[in-house]
Amino acid sequence: MIIAATGHRPPKLGGYGQDVRRELFNLAMDYLEAERPASVISGMALGWDQAFALAAVMCGIPLTAAVPFEGQHLRWPADSQRRFELLLSEATTVHIVSDIPGDRAMQKRNEWMVDQANKMCALWDGSWGGTFNCLRYAKKVQRPVDNLWDRWVFRDLL
User: Fold this and answer.
1) 108 with 97: CB under 8 angstroms?
2) Domain regions of the chain by residue span
């Protein structure tokens, strides 16, 4: 089983702080320990994608880093760039999806991930945007989706 992750960036998840990153990581760890996929695909964006990638590495699950375009991370703050580069160095495979930067590369990356995966693991609040587009494509090609949004929102009550 190959599981690909898609989800929101830090602004929709509570911010860029270490506490939020830790909680995202814990959610991803719980999911991956229960599912035990043969491998994982991450789109490597800030937020859910990187938490899922880090959890895969920590669980010893082979990671494919699906990077939309070369230099995706160069507009990020220095500490975010370092985390990205460290995760990339731990990936079993790095797949650069497009030679051309931009939103179209992001969607091409999303479609590539869905096409390679048996199932999607989403952290999606139902809003429009890149995660919505990815999941719309997953539905079109009949890829199952586990959406962990309720586990994220109600994590303090569990």
Assistant:
1) yes
2) 2-157
Measured distance CA(53)–CA(156) in Å, rounded: 23
CA end-to-end distance (rounded Å), the chain:
27
Which burial class, exposed, middle or buried, applies to 85 when counting CB atoms under 10 A from its CB (0-12, 13-18, 19+)?
Answer: exposed
Q: Determine the pLDDT at residue 158.
A: 67
Which residues, listed in sequence order, are joined to residue 3 by a DSSP beta bridge?
Answer: 40, 119
Q: Is 2-157 a CATH 3.40.630.30 domain? A: no
Q: Is the pTM of this model over 0.90?
A: yes
pLDDT in tens, 100-115: 998 899 999 999 999 9
Q: What is the amino acid identity at position 2?
A: I
Residue 9 in 3-state DSSP?
A: coil
Spatial CA neighbour of 111 closest among 101, 100, 125, 97: 97
**Helix (H/G/I), strand (E/B), else coil: 125:** coil
